[in-house]
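Consider the tokenized backbone below.
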């Protein structure tokens, strides 16, 4: 089990042991956009007893050890994120939209709250798909160039920090939409009269949240700091 200390940041905990991500999420502790906060600070913001949370995390026994992405260089990590999380979102967002439409058409009259769930999912998709495209067409090629060039890279936007700032702002917005989606679905708990499709929709939305949180964590807290440090290295 990873060493869990009150002064560890949430990002450090998840990078050292990605299996802790679900445990933090269950307690409402944001490790992706809020990953720079210490465990103690995050617990205080949620009115949780930090010492108790540490004991619970240690006792959870979920550790799977270090995952491959935690030791990748910038080029490898970009490839991993694109192949893993981008591919997932390109496939899953249209699937969940179609499933949402189906569930809404059958259950919408009895469950008008589905209108808000559908609107939130549509807004999330409208944000994420252009975001993925910008990363794949602009930022990620820049990172690959930076990782392989032997001379200082010159980008049309100046420093690579500029598109990174934009991407992080969009990550914050996606995080807010995911939090709203969780509230609207009552923590992804389907009603008692839910059919199999309704259950599948809420399970899919919960999986979407978990995957996107980890996706954002890998970029905000691992890839982007690595890339900024790479750009700042003196020319050799």
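A designed sequence for it:
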């Amino acid at each position: 089990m990873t060493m869990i200390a009150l002064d560890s940041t949430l990002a450090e905990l998840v990078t050292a042991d990605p299996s802790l991500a679900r445990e933090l999420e269950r307690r409402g502790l944001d490790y992706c956009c809020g990953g720079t906060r210490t465990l103690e600070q995050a617990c205080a913001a949620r009115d949780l007893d930090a010492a108790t949370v540490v004991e619970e995390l240690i006792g959870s026994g979920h550790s799977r050890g270090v995952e491959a992405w935690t030791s990748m260089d910038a080029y490898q990590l970009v490839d991993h994120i694109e192949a893993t999380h981008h591919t997932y979102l390109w496939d899953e967002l249209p699937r969940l939209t179609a499933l949402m439409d189906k569930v809404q058409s059958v259950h919408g009259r009895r469950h008008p709250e589905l209108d808000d769930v559908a609107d939130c999912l549509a807004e999330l998709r409208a944000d994420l798909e252009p975001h993925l495209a910008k990363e794949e067409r602009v930022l990620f090629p820049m990172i690959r160039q930076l990782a392989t060039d032997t001379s200082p890279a010159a980008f049309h936007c100046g420093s690579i920090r500029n598109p990174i700032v934009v991407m992080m702002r969009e990550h914050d917005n996606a995080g807010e939409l995911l939090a709203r989606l969780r509230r609207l679905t009552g923590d992804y708990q389907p009603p008692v009269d839910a059919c199999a499709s309704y259950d599948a929709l809420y399970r899919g939305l919960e999986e979407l949240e978990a995957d996107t949180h980890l996706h954002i964590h890998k970029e905000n807290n691992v890839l982007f700091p690595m890339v900024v440090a790479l750009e700042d290295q003196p020319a050799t």
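Residues 69-232 form one domain.
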